[in-house]
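## retry 2 of 3
previous attempt timed out at serialization; input unchanged, resubmitting
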Amino acid sequence: MQFDLKDSVKISIDTLVVGMFVTSIQKSERVYLSNAGRVSSKKGIDTLVNKGIQYVWVDKKLSAKGCEFHPVPDDETAEIQQNSNKNSPNKFVSREVRQKNAERIIKEARGLAQKIITATFDSHTFVADELDGWADELIESALVNSDALQCVSALRKKDTYLLEHSVNVATLLVTFGKHLGFGKEHLKPLAIGGIIHDVGKVHIDDNVLQKPSRLTEDEFEHIKQHQVFAKPIIKKIEGLSQVSRDICLMHHEKLDGTGYPNGLKGEQIPQHGRMACIVDVYDALTADRCYKRGMSPAEAFKIMLTMTPNHLDRQLVYKFINCIGIFPIGAIVELSNGHLGIVWSSNDDAPVEPVVKCFYSRKNKRFIDVKYVDLKHSWHTIVKAVSPTKAGIDVTPFF
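## retry succeeded, writing output
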């Protein structure tokens, strides 16, 4: 339904009643609603109150008859409207630019990972400096805004698991490090360590690596050898930092000493080694493989918490969950209105109310015009995470 801003008046949330037509809301600043409409229930008003909304703008002409309006002074309206009109379109344009940049960085990462694998097969020396430029760009992208980076890395192929896993671990380590307050100089070895961490698997039998059923004891011992194979490989990478080496050789160690290859225990595993263990487990659990569907982040978090404190560092796991969020960037979710969408960007002060890029109506079983819904300023909420495979829809074009 179309409405005219000239017919809208600003009122306190305390005077909002069922039947009023809400066009925009204000917590710290005015936000125009993409789903403007009449308030149909007291529950809708309670939702706004619980979200901390202080004022709303209502259209007097489109509101139900009999509604009484008690306008409050609105000296800032003209300035707010001007700023909203000026800034809103740029918000998503700038995101598109970041998205394209993230796609380029991830594509380059895949190329570098492939180059490392090829060099390993051919017994060639690889120089760590070749990764420096890419690592700098990855870090810059994460520091400016990691949403685009996380969204692109969430789109992965099942048939190139080793490649995708290496790139994702690198991205997740940088994102996690940023969350913990690491500076650029400390983030770079995390990125490089992440992309080389599974390089020893190039010498593992593909039939074992891709086996679609439970591994035998002998096969599991063979898989564990990838850490042994990694040692001579990383020795040939000139200029590789100790932190990057540790990430490669420690991501299967456990705090109780039952991990491999060296059975390190407790304080023998430094923070970056513990981070690598957490990130490696998380990405392995959430990834689609040729023989299994990946878990939802929430399911993965539950399993990871059961692995503390014996295997994983409990405090770091809690911090990682806080970093990634229950609904991570790139996750597919269903909203309370039946629309499916991609978690597109995060709201730092409202972690369970991200911006969702909606593209499908489950109710009507059809694709819809793309719409960005900022849940921080919407009546809608996330109902649950959704597996696009189970839903039978292809989400690839919307990333």
